[in-house]
Each structure stands twice: as structure tokens, then as C-alpha cells.
Design a protein that fits this description.
CATH topology of the largest domain: Glutaredoxin
Largest sheet: 5 strands, mixed
Number of strands: 18
Strand order of the largest sheet: 4-1-3-2-5
CATH architecture of the largest domain: 3-Layer(aba) Sandwich
Structural class: alpha/beta
Strand content: 5-15%
Number of helices: 19
Shape: elongated
Radius of gyration: 31 Å
Helix content: 40-55%
Number of domains: 3
Length: 555
């Protein structure tokens, strides 16, 4: 292998150092975001949540059509695994993140939430990917904001600004980010002076709010708009304290509450009621009650809400005294999570449909993992109809194609991977097997449907169709007298393709079927019905709906 370049060597050394630091410090926190078009953002939630939970990573990930926004924490190796998982997708291949370390767990739960916006501004026509302002790197930020012609604006909420900001920054005194556009429209500081357009520099915690706020200003005609690349966190990480123009601490939305230079956790405490940092003097205020209220939120909660908070605080104290985890504890005996790779196949299926059974048998034999979405035929999900307008199962959705026929799904899977040698090696044997399946799916299925569902076809009893279907079964029995299985002495794809339909025929009138003289066929069916392979493909699942935890179907 070629030796790594000097830059690669530095990166590898830095990652090794980060890994060692995180392991010794206990928890690595990674913050990241990216504005990118995600039309399938809803489908991304279940696999991403499952992957995070499997690696014991906790925190919050927001997904929206406009991109991703997140802060997660856990063991360094697990956090890096989540980042690597995301970067498998080309839309996130250049995802950048900020890191910090702590001895205390920053989060107690893992949540993946679907949102209209990854940072709420309330304006649908703003496109950060096309109109964001000019990035300014942390090492160049001081020169920019010390320019007397630059208007410096802190885009964060008032309680964040209260504990720290850049010297000389304007505080809009907003409660939420969605209030910023109105403030910007009214601000006298942005009015052009002497015919010269105002130069505006904006900053926020991690950079994401400035992507939108600078894009908004550009949409209003301002061209000289700049923002701090990587936000305050990247500035505090890279700029030495003796050169810094930052004054105070930076509020973060996790259990650290605030960080300072080097992203070292600060001394601020959090009000467990409003989740804002406690203002100065709060601990001495008669309005402060641990876990219940602080001077900032006391007047905004009812007595009923305060009593509920007191009970929650009491439960936390009891758990803490017993050294038990009160928030975010894992359920007992939780089964290990099976993970799907990025862009794994999605199979829309219906448990009792013989065509869907055939597809599941083929996928299971191939060992190719996929997400199984059980369909309620009377309430088909729009995602199925979007992928396959005819709405019949099975349907296999792949990144580059949609396969709508059970035999095609089976062949696709086995041609990808055939560890059990279900595909015969001789072309003539394969051709003979295809002919048998053609009979099964043609004349036999035609008569089976009318035998099993005579009322559906306005038939009195369907017995004549039962007799017609027997011709195919007699043929199968003769084949099974010659070989152990349908085509030779090994269970192959043909057996899996035909068995669900023979099973459906036999179940229509089990006593009548038992009386027939097809001993070889009946034994073959008994072996199939008592097999582990059938038990596995017939596992029962609730009908799928968007946002539901994914069901992993694997061999």
C-alpha cells in the first residue's frame, strides 16, 4: 500500500488522538448539519434510529426535506460509526462535524424527528444551498468583526446571548429564531448609509441558523453578508483564548449547558423546567425551585404543571439515591438490533399472499437483508402506490429500480447471492423448472382461485376448478416419486416458488386433501410446512406506516 500523504498522516494522527481523548474523557459529542435536498427524508428515520440505538448513541437528529441537523453523543467509536454510516450516502459524503468531550453523558435518549425545517425560520422560500452568505473561517473572523463598517449580529435567542457573545455584537432580543426576519426588517442598523450598502456579519452556535439568516438577507437585496463558518463552537475550538473576542460562555443544547474555549464544559446550570440556562442570581431567588421553576419561567407555568414537575423531580431523586437510571433507561431484555446498510432494499409484502411468500423465501435464501413493510391490502400506504401504481404485492424497491413480480424478485436475489445453491447449474434443468412455474402461475393458479374463492367469481362451489387444478398436483406427485424434490434431490428455488400455492390449495379443504393418493406430494408439503424456513418467512408483523420502526428481514 502507498504511504499516506503528510496531510493524511496528520488526519490519522488527529483521529487517533481524538479517539484516545474521547475514550479517556468518557463521551464524545458530535454536532453536525447539512442543507441538502432530501425528498425521502421520512424513509430515512427508521434505519438511522435503529443504527444509533444499536451503537448506544444518544442525542437528537432532525430530518427535513431541506437536510439534517443533529447533536449526538456516546463512546467515540460508536459516534464515529454513526458518522461513517451517514457518509455512506453520497448526499452526506462531505458531512462535517464539531467534536467535544465530557465525563457526563450529554443526552439520556436517542430521538430522530421529522420536521418541516431543520431550523425553524418559518419562511418556505429561503434556500441556504443557493443563497447563503460568504463563509468566514474562525481564524479570519476577528479581522472582519473589528472593521468599524461591519454590523455584527448575534442570531441566537436572548437566553443564549445572555451568557456569552462576541464583543460589540447586536442582540436582537428574540425568543425564537422565527422572530429574526421581522427584527431584521425593522432594524435601523441595516439601513444603507451615504449610499453605501451595510456590511453584515452574523453568527450562531454551530452555523446552521446563519445559513438561513444570511440567505434571507440576500433575498432582501443585501450582498455583503458574512457568517462565521462552523459557528461559535468552531471558533472556541480553534481560536486561542488570548486572541479571542468572545466574552462569556456558549450555550449548548445538552447536559453540558455551556462550553468555553477548547469546548470545555462551563459552570452554568440548566433549569429543568424551561430548559434554559439559569440567569445570574437564580439560585438565591425565591422563584427558583430545583426541577420546578426559575425566575425566567416561574410565571409561565401553572400550579398543576409545577406539581407535576415536583413529582418528576422526586422520582429522579429516588432513582439517583438508588444509583438507578431514571431517564432514558433501556427496556429490560431488549433484543439486539439488526442493522440494515444504507439504501437497503425495501420489500412491500403481505404475509399470506403466496406470491409474497415466494419473494420472502428467495430473499431469505440469498441472505440479502432488506426492510420488510407489511401491507394492509385495504389500506395500502401511498409509498407503495408511488413505487408501484398497480399496488399489488410483492414489490421490491431498490435504489435504482423497482421489481414488481415475485419470480423476478426471487431471481434478482439468488443471482446476487446463492449460498444454498438454489439455482441449478444445468441450463436444461433451469428451463424445465421455469416451465413448471409457468404452469403453477397460469392454469393452476386460475383454478386455485376459483376453488378457494367461488363467491368472488360467482361460482356455486368451485369443485370443477378443484378437479382441474388436480392435474398439476398429479404431475408434481409423479415428479416427487422420481426425485426427493421437484427438480432433483436438492431443495431449490422451484420448490420455494411452488410450495406456497400448493399449501394454499391444501388448506382450502385439508380433510379432502389428506384423502388423496398423492403420498409423495403430501410428504413434501408436510416437510415444507414444518420447516424452519416457512416459520421464519411467516412471522407476523403489524401493517407498516411512515415513521414506524423498521422491520429487518434477513437470511
Amino acid at each position: 500500500m502507498p504511504n499516506p500523504s503528510p496531510d493524511q498522516g496528520k488526519i490519522q494522527a488527529m483521529q487517533t488522538n481524538v479517539q484516545q481523548t474521547a475514550n479517556s474523557s468518557g463521551f464524545l459529542t458530535a454536532a453536525f448539519y447539512k442543507f441538502v435536498d432530501l425528498p425521502d427524508y421520512e424513509n430515512r428515520k427508521p434505519p438511522l434510529l435503529a443504527f444509533c440505538e444499536a451503537h448506544q448513541v444518544k442525542g437528537l437528529i432532525l430530518l427535513a426535506r431541506e437536510g439534517i441537523n443533529s447533536t449526538i453523543a456516546g463512546k467515540a467509536s460508536d459516534v464515529y460509526a454513526v458518522l461513517d454510516y451517514l457518509k455512506q450516502d453520497t448526499v452526506f459524503s462531505d458531512l462535517q462535524h464539531k467534536e467535544s468531550f465530557s465525563h457526563k453523558a450529554p443526552f439520556y435518549r436517542m430521538k430522530v424527528r421529522l420536521k418541516k425545517e431543520i431550523v425553524t425560520m418559518g419562511l418556505s422560500d429561503i434556500s441556504p444551498t443557493q443563497m447563503a452568505g460568504t463563509y468566514v473561517k474562525p481564524e479570519q473572523w476577528n479581522d472582519l468583526i473589528q472593521d468599524p463598517s461591519v454590523v455584527l449580529i448575534d442570531t441566537r435567542n436572548d437566553y443564549e446571548v445572555e451568557i456569552g457573545t462576541f464583543k460589540g455584537a447586536i442582540n436582537p432580543n428574540i425568543k425564537t429564531f422565527s422572530e429574526l426576519p421581522e427584527w431584521l426588517q425593522k432594524s435601523k442598523d441595516l439601513i444603507q448609509k451615504n449610499g453605501q450598502q451595510t456590511k453584515i456579519a452574523m453568527f450562531c452556535t454551530g452555523g446552521i441558523r446563519c445559513e438561513k439568516s444570511t440567505a434571507y438577507l440576500r433575498s432582501q437585496g443585501f450582498d455583503q453578508v458574512f457568517h462565521l463558518e462552523g459557528g461559535i463552537l468552531k471558533y472556541l475550538e480553534q481560536v486561542a483564548p488570548q486572541k479571542s473576542l468572545w466574552d462569556g460562555q456558549c450555550f449548548v443544547f445538552d447536559e453540558r449547558v455551556s462550553v468555553g474555549h477548547g469546548l470545555e464544559p462551563g459552570l452554568h446550570q440548566l433549569c429543568r423546567s424551561c430548559r434554559d440556562p439559569l440567569p445570574d442570581g437564580a439560585l438565591d431567588s425565591p422563584l427558583y425551585e430545583v426541577g420546578v421553576s426559575c425566575p425566567r419561567c416561574f410565571d409561565h407555568t401553572t400550579e398543576e404543571q409545577k406539581n407535576s414537575a415536583r413529582e418528576r423531580q422526586r422520582q429522579w431523586q429516588l432513582a439517583h439515591a438508588k444509583q438507578q437510571q431514571h431517564v432514558g433507561a433501556q427496556p429490560p431484555n431488549k433484543k439486539p438490533v439488526t442493522l440494515l446498510p444504507m439504501n437497503a432494499p425495501v420489500l412491500y409484502s403481505f404475509r399470506r399472499c403466496p406470491y409474497a411468500m415466494r419473494a420472502r423465501l428467495g430473499l431469505m435464501a440469498s441472505g440479502i437483508p432488506c426492510e420488510l413493510r407489511e401491507v394492509a391490502l385495504k389500506d395500502k400506504p401511498p409509498q407503495l402506490l408511488e413505487a408501484s401504481p398497480k399496488g399489488t404485492v410483492p414489490v421490491l424497491v431498490l435504489p435504482d429500480q423497482v421489481i414488481e413480480e415475485s419470480m423476478q424478485i426471487m431471481m434478482w436475489a439468488l443471482q446476487k447471492n446463492d449460498p444454498q445453491s438454489w439455482l441449478p447449474t444445468q441450463p436444461e434443468v433451469q428451463q424445465r423448472a421455469l416451465q413448471i412455474v409457468e404452469q403453477c402461475d397460469g392454469v393452476f393458479k386460475f383454478n386455485l382461485d376459483r376453488y378457494k374463492y367461488p363467491n368472488r367469481y360467482d361460482i356455486v362451489d368451485g369443485l370443477s376448478h378443484r378437479d382441474a387444478a388436480c392435474e398439476f398436483l398429479i404431475q408434481l406427485d409423479a415428479q416427487l416419486q422420481q426425485y426427493r424434490f421437484l427438480i432433483d434431490d436438492q431443495w431449490r428455488w422451484l420448490d420455494a416458488a411452488v410450495a406456497p400455492f400448493v399449501r394454499q390449495f391444501a388448506k382450502t379443504d385439508r380433510e379432502w386433501f389428506k384423502q388423496q393418493s398423492w403420498n409423495a406430494l403430501k410428504q413434501w408439503l408436510v416437510d415444507f410446512e414444518s420447516s424452519d424456513r416457512l416459520a421464519r418467512v411467516m412471522a407476523s408483523y403489524k401493517p407498516w406506516h411512515m415513521g414506524q420502526r423498521q422491520v429487518v428481514f434477513a437470511g
